[in-house]
Amino acid sequence: MKLPRRFFQPLAAGAPAPYRELPVKLERMIHFVPPHVDKVRARVPELAPTVDIVLGNLEDAVPIDHKEAARKGFVQMAQATDFTATGTGLWTRVNALNSPWLLDDLFEIVGAVGDKLDVVMVPKVEGPWDIHYVDQLLAQLEARHGVAKPILIHAILETAEGVANVDAIACASPRMHGMSLGPADLAASRGMKTTRVGGGHPDYVVIADPAGDAPRARAQQDLWHYTIGKMVDACMANGIKAFYGPFGDFSDGEACEAQFRNAFLMGCAGAWTLHPSQVAIAKRVFAPDPAEVAFAARIVEAMPDGTGAVMLDGKMQDDATWKQAKVIVDLARLVAE
Ligand code: GLV
Ligand code: MG
């Protein structure tokens, strides 16, 4: 099933072959807040203008005896701040489909603030059937409560079964906004041997061949490369967005930045930010490098109709590199707006 490319800019009139159109809305970070914590909730009005998306988390990290308070806190949070004034997205992460809380999460939240909610993030999605279920529930709740704007769905890719079904998940509903990699649950589901939340592992390395007497070099690899690549392809093929998920070591900004950057280079639009220090990292990473933008702008300028071949600084440019350049130039424009 091919879905309309609702989240991407239409091709400019007279543009040549399609290039990868960019997201209309800048979504560099999905910033998580725990809605049951009064102190954090009180700071949301001042937080909202500084991030692209505020997400009220109801799932993992919220203790069982605070599930109800989190739901109620989210409703208060949605009522207390005008997120549309700053163009900030308002999302919630609901509990999993096999938990006792999902129905109440959706019933209470859509009933109370469905008209303010942009996206429901659904955890532990295993196949398109999970999306169909949430899609139908949302349709019923929107109809019951007169919610005019369709609430979108964002799936977390965090089970081995979900990864196996990623293409079918990406096109499971016209409500699909995008997908995030959930490295912690995915590591557990796959039986990976790590206790970290995202990022690398000191033992996941390659060793260079010995060269004379030089010591063998060891280089750490990106543990998430395969899944991010698979997720980005599934998302882009269906006109939705891919995101890297959480990075759990708040003390290691450098490693967080490296992980976010790998995801950005591979096609992700943004990442989750769980700590205020990660917001600046996401802003820095999910925007193109100025030198790259300058070079890309030269390519676009040198090939006004996007066709043919030219040489720039000894590097061959043609229709394909024009499309690559457009991705970078368009993103730079979006960041600058
Ligand atoms: C996120 O939910 C994760 O499991 O990494
Ligand atoms: Mg998870």
From TrEMBL:
Gene Ontology molecular function terms on file: lyase activity
Pfam family, one: HpcH_HpaI
Cofactors (names): Mg(2+)
Keywords: Lyase, Magnesium, Metal-binding
Location of the HpcH/HpaI aldolase/citrate lyase domain: 51-275
InterPro entries assigned: Aldolase/citrate-lyase_domain, Citrate_lyase_beta/mcl1/mcl2, Pyrv/PenolPyrv_kinase-like_dom, Pyrv_kinase-like_dom_sf
Keyword Kinase part of the UniProt annotation: no
Family stated for the protein in its record: Belongs to the HpcH/HpaI aldolase family.
Listed PANTHER family: CITRATE LYASE SUBUNIT BETA, LYASE BETA SUBUNIT, PUTATIVE (AFU_ORTHOLOGUE AFUA_4G13030)-RELATED
Listed name of the protein: Malyl-CoA/beta-methylmalyl-CoA/citramalyl-CoA lyase
Record organism: Methylobacterium jeotgali
